[in-house]
Amino acid sequence: MQGTWTDRRKFIITSVVSAVAIILLIVFDQITKIYFKTLYEGGEWVKTTIIPNFFEFRYTVNTGAAWSFLAGVSWAQTFFKILTAVSLIAFFAFFVYALKKRKKVLIISLILIIAGTIGNFIDRLAYNGVVDFISLIFGDYYFPIFNLADSFMTVGIILMIIHYFFLDENKVFTKNGNKDD
Where are the alpha helices (DSSP H) in the chain? Predict the structure, then answer.
């Protein structure tokens, strides 16, 4: 990386702060998962109602992906572990690009995505599934149970969309709808 000492120093500081943020998010995610796993060790689908008909803690281990996709399929865990490892390599490469280009919102989004991906990857390695415990209810609809790592990834993806649609130099949406501005 060429540039002045100040540029290098900013790059190093941003890298260290980002690494610390990723580690703290992973630790927070894992502490909450261990807490609920310990609290509800008796079995799956144990629940604690926080706000009736809206918010519950409901412990389960999801052996699939989002919305239990491929849950119970014999080869799924191996597939998800390989896919996650490959995705993490891509996310880290993309993160280095964002650091070098000083794209703040993209950096934050990748911090969240990487932390969430690693948090769920740890679960897959330790439990052959992902510990979920947050349950939202909307009328008769029970939203799929999720965890903090899932929330980190969701917010990270939303921030990435905001970055590329509204903030990037090649953004999709411009003030006048004209990219030539």
Answer: 5-39, 76-101, 104-127, 148-162
pLDDT tens across 80-120, in order? 899 999 999 999 999 999 999 999 999 999 999 999 999 99
Rounded-to-integer distance, Cα 97 and Cα 94, Å? 5
Catalytic residues: 132, 150
pLDDT, residue 177, reads 55
Question: CA nearest 84: which of 33, 118, 129, 128?
Answer: 118
For residue 45, what are its two tokens?
């689908």
Contact 118, 130 (CB under 8 A): no
- For residues 173 and 162, the answer to whether their CB atoms sit within 8 Å is no
